[in-house]
Design a protein that fits this description.
The complex is a heterotrimer of chains A (755), B (294) and C (158). Chain A has 755 residues and is an alpha+beta fold. Chain A has 20 helices and 26 strands. By secondary structure, chain B is an alpha+beta fold. Classes of the chains: A alpha+beta (755), B alpha+beta (294), C alpha+beta (158). Chains in contact: A-B, A-C, B-C. At the A-C interface, helix 1 and helix 18 of A face helix 2, helix 3, helix 4 and helix 5 of C.
Amino acid sequence: MSEARDFRVVGTRPIRPDGVDKVTGRANFGADFSLPGMLYAQVLRSPHAHARIVSIDTKKAAKMPGVFAVVTGADFPRVGSEEITGGEGAGDYRDLATNIMARDKALYHGHAVAAVAAVSPAVAADALAAIKVKYKVLTPVMDLDAAMADDATLIDETLFTAGLPEKPAKPSNVAAVMEMKRGDVEKGFAQADVVVEGTYRTPTVHQGYIEPHACVATINQGGQATVWCCTQGHFDVRSASAKVLGMNVSDIRVIPSEIGGGFGGKTTIYGEPVAILLSKKSGRPIKLVMTRDEVFRASGPASATKCVVKIGAKRDGTITAMSAWLGYEAGAFKGSSMAPGAMCIFAPYNVPNFLIRGHDVLVNKPKVAAYRAPGAPQSMYACESLLDELARKLDIDPIDLRMKNAVEEGCQAAYGPKFNAIGFKQCLEAAKRHPNYTKALGPGEGRGVAAGFWFNAGMQSSAEIHINEDGTVTVIEGNPDIGGSRASMALMAAEELGVPYERVRVQVADTESAGYTNVTGGSRVTFATGMAVIHAARDIIAQCKQRAAATWGVDAEMVDWQDGKVIPKPGVNAELKPLTLADIAKGSPRTGGPLLGRASLNARGAGAGFSVNMAHVKVDTETGKVDVLGFTAIQDAGKAIHPSYVEGQMQGGAVQGLGWALNEEYVYNADGVMQNAGFLDYRMPVASDMPMIDTQIIEVANPTHPYGVRGVGEVPIVAPLAAAANAVRDATGVRIHDLPLSPPRVLEALDAARS
Amino acid sequence: MQSFAYEAPATLKGALAILKDHRKRKCRAQVLAGGTDLLVQMRTVNTAPRTIVDVKRLDETNELKFGPKKTFVGAAIPGVVLCAQKKLNQRHPGLVESIDLIGSSQILGRATLGGNLCNASPAGDTIPALIANGGVCVIASPRGKRELPVEKFVVGVQKNALKSDEILLGIRFDAPKPRTGDAYLRFIPRTEMDIAVAGAGVSVTLDKSGVCKAARVAIGAVAPTALLVPKAAKALIGTKLDAEALDAAAAAASEAAKPIDDKRGTVVFRKKIVGVLVKRAAAIAAERAKGKQR
Amino acid sequence: MSRIHVDTTINGVATEFLCEPQQSLLEVLREELKLTGTKEGCATGDCGACSVTVDGRLVCSCLVLGAEAQGRKIGTVEGIADGDKLHPIQQKFLEHAALQCGICTPGLMVATKALLDANPDPTEEEIRYYLAGNLCRCTGYDKIIRAVQDAAQTMRGA
């Protein structure tokens, strides 16, 4: 349980313990490793978006001088169908294995069909050119409408829609349907004074991490493999690689490098099993790094979607009913983010009647992977845009409209559980009071408001704390640090143990040195791993009390822990000098051995996260260009362990969301080939595109975490999409439904409205 | 079979000898200036091995001369150096604008006027500005020197008029007449880093009463090559560049544009935007002609 | 194909290496010289993670041939700190939490130093446009700009 208290170091802004290596170039990322004798791997990829693989001839490539190994799908074992758990996306191990290396079909342009290992990248490229693949080209299915049409070309002829009351007679590109409901929407809409409806589309977008996927793998003749890779979850790399290759988990050791961004995109695997297999065949270590082009074409972007939303309300703004039809592109294999999208869409609101129908749909694009609050930006873009329309129709302030229907503690969430203490209303109040809400707008300018939500995850974490002989502290945990989490772990350990922050070091250890830990994702690390670190610290404290009591010859109940020292309780021998951590560490050989604290848990009670965002834009009505002049992000963090890194999550997520709203999209030609697979034409925000991002951290303590923490990493990307669209509507009087709000689309909409 | 090779000749004579020799042996030789286009293309669309002939060490390609009647800009001078040249800014502010827009700070540390022109991308930012300023290419070959106006130098999508044994030494301009101003504007979806969706370079010369007596209007990224649009210039000449004249010039530019639909823009959008850019660039050029600083 | 012998200076230290004619300076730094501080994000000059200086000029090392380093002075992230003392730019980035994953940070160290060497008192707009070639996906740029402003102030002795 969390206790209200004055914190000593938690809530301050010290320099992160891994920072110096990162500003000096010493920190090692995925592609920075080398081993003696290392070979370079490259992957041959399908030039067709949809094709049957008739034959692959690798004989010439395998014989080339400097080529040590060649693999195709035939070299990988058969993998049974089994749901992937513990990651951040939906999926099946058999599909994962087929995604990593195609078997009988190429399912997207860029799908891996073979790989080689050679002495240099140049020789590897020549070897790829020598591999002959015969394809039978099929019609590519490139969007939701095409995939769901009655006469659609089937991507997987063995796929029957799951989730229907009866198994359908014919296979389909619709992998699954899902329904969530409460009450009676028909009655709810009938009760409404006003009903609004809208159809909204979002494009395929990429997480855009600057570091491409990279690994070095080596396996010895005894079948024991070691993999260095950039990943959000090295335990998942281990388990997934073991499944794909049919190996024992204990025979794979995964060492996480520093990671150059992930945002969900590095919670799955692409090259690691390929590199292990090439190492097995060649007897040498293998380096496999994706090019930027490959990252776009063949890693996991986020679902393109179509969302049809309907809201009914009384004149005073009370919502009586909400309904949504959601179509999410999964890519080449089932498992889009439709389910979490459905969970989140109405979650901020107390709605007596709702109905959500979601569809998980196959298309000939790369299999989608998680992207920061997967599914929620898309569905909530639709709902938050429509709420803006409703507010206009009712002539009610958009914040007041949300406040009138806002969930609070004790409400039952749309996705099931009862909310503990949450901060949505507090965020709304803060937004209303914020000076940016009433700032004067110039000509051509507009302001838009939207809410964001993510349920946040708990899951499994392990932590160990070693007290060193001089009383300094080493924390061992298993979460790759993507946003400053080492600093937060150090703060929590220092807080609990009563030692200076500078005396704590945090190690992100590999799969053989840390206890099992789930991914860095789901906004769970500060919450769940932080909880484990705190529990491990309390384990240390309990041991310290025992050791001190033993040293003093008193019972363990006669001592207390205060400000980093063991002291005798009042009434017990007052002459006993308090013992510090360093004292107890020094005496530990005599009192029972090394001081080791540990905790492993499956954290429950992750607190739901809410945000309210405001976008301030200016639209050039002659060109359709949208400039973001200001952005305000208000979010409930429960307790900000390191406020600078909480602000960092809010600002980074805001800018990703604005990129999604304004310019980012995968552009395909008629053959299903991506046209903009680089940073030149996949247009992410650059420094000159963005203003300062104003942040306000709200703290409504999450009762299930010792310090009140609730996850903050994912909520920030959700609200900016609708905030931007609502701001453009405010500036121009025109509602644009399909993202991105790129200049040609905005100009087209403005011209249509003017004519 | 030819392999990659790299040469960095110290003299023009030496550079021309390499090109002549490769032409004779029917081998590929490619002139390298800044490399910001060439190195990308060499790894993606055009990977055939060749001899790279680096012209950055030649005196002629690094020359920057401001004569009373002429300006000469060497083809291999990095953009960041040109943008800092006060005299170039004074004489041809629009040209300097266009160079500044070629790319990021890092790109500008290497990219050159010569390279941007020779790469002959339909969207090359400097090309409309070069044309608007009446730039003339100075070309060297084993046969001597020749000259060609910029608008005749670019002949197609990524095709220029150089023969395989010729090197662009630089571009020369007449020093601008009194009351002459130029400007370059381009449209991109972000604020930096993008290839131009449309571009417009305009130069105007005013008489003492503020009436336009000469003009050149060039548009980019809306046709296989940058286009000189005499009809748009005509719409400005004899006017005081009022709203009506600007609209007429814009309409002429939109009409002359022959863009394509691609990942960077649509036909409809590009035709519209290039007109808007011509209007805005002409207005800025006029202000500069009246004596305002860039 | 014969390799080219190059004599150059890297972070003030005379250095020589062999490279293929078409190899980039980025590849040479990382693979031949094991200076892995400079990162590859795209290899097309669009992200700035490979930023270095050549004769004091900020460039993308993925767009420079290794052979072109002949006789030049190359500056990488490894040369920004002064022995065991961090440069003010590095210190301010840490204080302002202007990095999260850190992959763009080496490029930003080099680019920021080049900016402040040329313009010791830049406006916010000047900073944003100068650094537009350095993509960051984690921070949203806010704290980066503040760190640069603070570093500039410190370096001016203001």
